Amino acid sequence: MKQGKEMKKCPRCGEMKLHPDNRFNVLSRKDNKTHICSDCGFAEASGAFIRSKAKFELGQLVWTRGVNDKVADDEEFAKFVTDSLKRHAKGDWGDLCDEDRQENELSLREGFRLFSAYEKEGLPKIWIITERDRSVTTILFPEEY
Known about the structure:
The protein is of the alpha+beta class. It has two domains: 1-52, no CATH class; 56-144, no CATH class. The protein contains four helices and six strands. It has a four-stranded mixed beta sheet. A two-stranded antiparallel ribbon has the order 1-2. β4 and β5 (126-130) form a beta hairpin. The longest helix has 15 residues, at 38-52. It is globular and about 55 Å long. The model has no long low-confidence stretch (mean pLDDT 90).
C-alpha cells in the first residue's frame, strides 16, 4: 500500500482490518451504511442465514479470537464453523454422548444453556454454547473455555 494508506480499525471487531478504500470492505447488515471488514461481513451474513432456520433463538453470535484468526486464515475451517453453527441452530448437538444430547433436549425445553461439540478430521474441535437466556451464542476452542 502507498504511504498514508494503512489499514483502519473495523468498528465491529476492533481489529486493524478495514481497508482504506471502502470498495474492498463490506456494508454491515445492521444499518446498511457502516463499512466493516470482510471477516465481520462473513460473520453477519452467515449469522443472518442461520438465524432464519434456527430451532431456538441464538442471540448475538460471537467467537473467540482464536476461532476468528483460524476462520480468517483457513477457508475449510470457516466452512466447518458455519456448517457446525447451522447444525447447532437446528438442534443437532454434534459429537456428544447420548447423556449430553438428552441434557440438551431438556435444556431446550426448559430454557437452560445449550452445548454442542463438533469435530472434523484435519481440523480443530470446536464448541458452541448458547446461553440460557438466549442472548448470546459463542463459538470457541475447548482450550479457550
